[in-house]
Amino acid sequence: MFDKLHEECGVFGIFGHPEASKMAYLGLYALQHRGQESAGIAASDGERLITYRAMGQVADVFSEAELTRLQGSLAVGHVRYSTAGASKLINAQPILIDCQHGQIALCHNGNLVNAAELREELGRGGAIFQTSSDSEVILHLYARSTAARVEDAIVESLAQIRGAFSLVLATADRLIAVRDPHGFRPLAVGRLGEATVVASETCAMDLIGATWVRDVEPGEILIISASGMRSLKPFPPATRTQCVFEHVYFARPDSYVFGESVNTVRTEFGRILARESPVLGDVVVPVPDSGVCAATGFSEESGIPLRMGLIRNHYVGRTFIEPQQSIRHFGVKVKLNPVRSILDGQRVILVDDSIVRGTTSRKIVRMIKAAGAREVHVRISCPPTISPCFYGVDTPRRSELIAATHTLEEIRKYLEADSLKYLSLTGLLAGVNSHRSDYCTSCYTGVYPVPFPRDQAAQLTLPLKLVPSEETS
Ligand code: SF4
Q: Most buried of the four, 92, 184, 268, 370, by CB within 10 Å?
């Protein structure tokens, strides 16, 4: 319902716990924000992997009986939002196969940029695909490897794929965690007593009482078995391009991602935004929940009080029945309601993390003005989103991104805001406290560190109206 980029997927794995599938269930529960279309767990008792997957959210997908059936001390799990491949059960993960190397279950977060070519090539060689997801390509490459050892077959197959992949794999007796050489998507390692845990975000570890130890490094393969944890680094080093949008919006603020607290980084974006684009106002109001951390930073830096001028209804389902008679701002009102006592007569600084198409932001500005606000100044805690993502994030085509097709002044007019400013790219990278080259910023620059899929080139031919250097002017 909100006009946001969609999260990709969440992955989780645990080795050495007597209730591994229940821990995976809880881990996935904490990662639910990363994907709501399907969920699945594969578990092994040391000899045989079994899996259960279904469409829907974690709490609805698994019953006590199902989790009891998923016996063993090793489990991997996945929550999915379809970044590649249609939204249907066949594409849900873990994908479990049995091949010459034995059983293997795969959970993938990210998107491969050469999946189409590999699929064509494998198809010509007689491969039959069960799914339309890019992740299955990895398993075909693995199954065809002539390497004698499982880990060599994994290395051989991964050497052929390009793009974004944080993988959690299970064989009957091993948990394997992999991060692509660029480190696009996060993957953390933790401990829970004697057990080893891997998860997309540390919030999954918090829920089960595990302690974060470190991140899986870009290009690293971790093999966790009864004989301990081994690290392989078989790929040539590559430029680090971690997804900065994890810090802007995707990851939960209570997580540590790429070694940094999401809350701290997101709040810092707000502080920098307040320094870059100050404005006279009476109240700072976040768009809940995505704008809360940045609005806190904006308020702290500017000295203007933070007020929850919009209240979010957390219990909205995916669909609702609309009345025949039109109600103003109905769509957004189902989820957000303005607090008139905070907004009436005030100069409101409205802080949100991003604008994609602009449709929701416009409704929110109108709603705040209808609640009596004198002025609404919109402040966005990332640069304008001008280009699609090919690395595992569901973005609309460039023609649908408002910042790709409108100037800053045109966007302001469309939103009916009194002023509009975005965080600069320099400010964004200062907020992650890291050198620019450590992060991917392609959706803000249109410059891609890893060549995008050849069939997607057409959608980048649209000329930009708001060039990146004009972002805060
Ligand atoms: S293009 Fe944007 S969303 Fe995609 S990986 Fe890069 S920073 Fe993240």
A: 184
